[in-house]
Amino acid sequence: MESALTCFLCSESYNTSNKAPRFLPCGHTYCSECCGIILEQNPARCPEDDSNISYTSIDAIPKNQALLKLFQNSNICTEHKKKLEYVCINDKIRICSRCALMGAHKDHEIKTIEDVHNEVVMRAGVLVDMLEIIDKTEAELSDTIMVKLEAVADQYDSKKEELQKSVKTEFSAMRAQLDALEKIVLGDLNKSFTNIENNITSSRELPKVIYQQASEWKDMAKDLLNLIDAKNEDPSYILFKMLASGYVELFQAGEKLLTDLEGIKDIQIEKISDDIQALDIDYTRNKIQTLCKVVNRGKNLQGRKMGESNNISDFNPKNFTEENKNLG
To answer: Which parts pass through the membrane (predicted)?
Structure first.
């Protein structure tokens, strides 16, 4: 048994630190220090069967867990052959008095097994007490807070459904009102279009009528003047038409025609243009942004005041039509 706990190469006892047993691929076991020396060779080979070793670092070579369990299950220090009465807190292993005073653990935190046992028992008691408190608190929460939270969750679901339905209903009604308002505005707009179109049409037709009358009058006047030229051929000829009442009527018609031609200048083209320019629609878009708002008057779980949405204000569906009836 003692030879199994001793390194074959250095004849020193295995431990759990620098002399930890390492298991080579070929099956042989050596301490960590000897394995380090073997890996320094090129190529690295097992000292006993000369087999190749592919590992490049000591940590890569697995520890011989079977031998380590022998150390853990034994109450005798394999290095100093003394009883394991102490515990190294840093390395979390049992050690003997010589390990604590002169060995690799001399500068570590050392406690007796009894002290460690008492501390473990004390901490276990604290955990038991805490477990009981947590169980009790959890039960109280389940009976009170959790029940209330479930009720609040149900309240939220109901409120969510109610408000979403309300928004859809109200906006559906507003769309219907907007459609009706659109028809009214378009009707008023078409009336204004008709008035302007009539003014443009009449203003276009009046000059045409007067120009036609002027053309007819000029033809009649030219015909009469051509008869006067006959005097040069027959001195005894007298143009009785110039003395008849028809001449007076032609002259009076000419005077009226001059008045009508002057009246064309008075056609109010600028007035029609001003009417076209002045025709517009006041959409008052800013009112659309103030039809409704989302209000949060409560506080969140951290007690901070919940903010309100931007650019929104109170909405009263009954006032919708009154506020928007003058859009046209």
So the answer is: none
